[in-house]
Amino acid sequence: MIHITTAGESHGPALTAILEGIPAGLPLQPEDLQPDLIRRQNGWLGGEPYRGASPRMQIERDRAQILAGVMDGKTTGAPIAILIENADHAKWKGRAVDAMTIPRPGHADFTAGLKYALEDLRPGLERASARETAARMAACFVCRKLLAALGISIGSYVIQIGTVKAGILDLPLAERLRRAEENSLRCPDSSAREKMQAEIDRAMTAGDTVGGIFEVAAIGVPPGLGGFATWEQRLGSRLGAALLGIPAVKGVEIGDGFALAAVPGTQAQDAFRRDGETLARASNHAGGIEAGISNGQPLILRAVMKPIATTISPQHSVDLAGGETTDTRYERSDFCTVPRAAVVAEGMVSYILAEAVQEKCGGDSIGELRERFERLPRGALGDFHLDPNPKVFW
Ligand SMILES: Cc1cc2nc3c(=O)[nH]c(=O)nc-3n(C[C@H](O)[C@H](O)[C@H](O)COP(=O)(O)O)c2cc1C
Question: Torsion over CA of 193, 196, 202 and 203, rounded to 10 degrees?
């Protein structure tokens, strides 16, 4: 089974990831992971990040080193070990850092302090920091590479920053994904981009932060991934947990999600129709999952990210060392991470889909996996053993 474990602190010497379950024979070089690592840092590949991304990203130049599991440019089937050095470590090493005793509401400081009996809260935030997603994503992007070898692609776009919403309803999915790569905010609607940046600028001027909503889509997903025999098998539950595993993500929707509450049942489903020898759908309200199983339509997921907890403007807190009421102290931080989180979400979806594909098809080598994958039903009527003129209904 595909599984990712990471280790490493935000300002430690390096972050590491171990990825198990990738079949042998997948071409893999560290450079293959570079474009996605840059997208995670900057929101896109085109250049500078949007204004409001953490200044830390100007220091780090994430480069993955592959230490195990790859020989002669191909995976061996053994666990893959990846290392990313923290450039910021050199600045922190040996530096006298004050004990952190004033918890920032909404961050890991308070809960980590309680859970691990910390007098100095810093070890908690060192690990809870989303810096960890650099290593996690390096491993997830290997999963993306595996999926790409099978014709499955995953992308994301931002649809809301603060109160500014993008208008994308008329844009086909492929166009949304294409346009997202053209700008650091990952927003397909060019008229909304400036307003979104202005919303981030406003927050920065006010010493505040801002959240937003993004969508992740997967195209080329075959029907039959996931399951309903137990709740843990449900693809929706696995993808939901994976997206909620991104720091600061507070809600996830599949397909039309919460909007379905206001829609009559007859209009909320994706009616079947015949399109020649293919079974087609007129809509995708379900977001590509029915009864916990992929149905062959594109997967569409949406997630909301809260505004970052670390703010320049002080928030009320209590110094846990002495008990006096005080204000939070500022730590260098992002003002908005929605575009960056969207890229992280692509990685998480890649992880879960790669796991579901391996579970369905298995295979120790990429050739074995591909052969089994290509035999999966794709939606032709014959795949479902349907009589095109059925006489008996039940
Ligand atoms: C890509 C990314 C970057 C983040 N950067 C910051 C940051 O600079 N400052 C901050 O306070 N939180 C940041 N966060 C969110 C915190 O890690 C998160 O709020 C914290 O771990 C507490 O977890 P919770 O919000 O899920 O409760 C970031 C999250 C992501 C996904």
Answer: -140
* Binding site membership of 345 for ligand 1 (Cβ less than 6 Å): no
Residue closest by Cα to atom 28 of ligand 1: 130
Q: Where are the alpha helices (DSSP H) in 99-131?
A: 109-116, 122-128
196's tokens: 């979104």
Q: Which atom of ligand 1 is nearest to the CA of 246?
A: 31
| Sheet (strand 153-161) strand order | 164-165, 153-161, 212-219, 299-305, 249-254
pTM of this structure: 0.95
Condensed to tens digits (0 to 9), the pLDDT of residues 251-276 reads: 999 999 999 999 999 999 999 988 88
CB-based burial of residue 128 (10 Å sphere; 0-12 exposed, 13-18 middle, 19+ buried)?
middle
Computed over its alpha carbons, how large is the radius of gyration of the chain?
A: 22
> In the chain, how many H helices and how many E strands?
12, 17
What is the residue type of 307?
P
- pLDDT value of position 379: 75
Q: Report DSSP state, residue 180.
A: H
Neighbours of 133 (CB within 10 A): 23
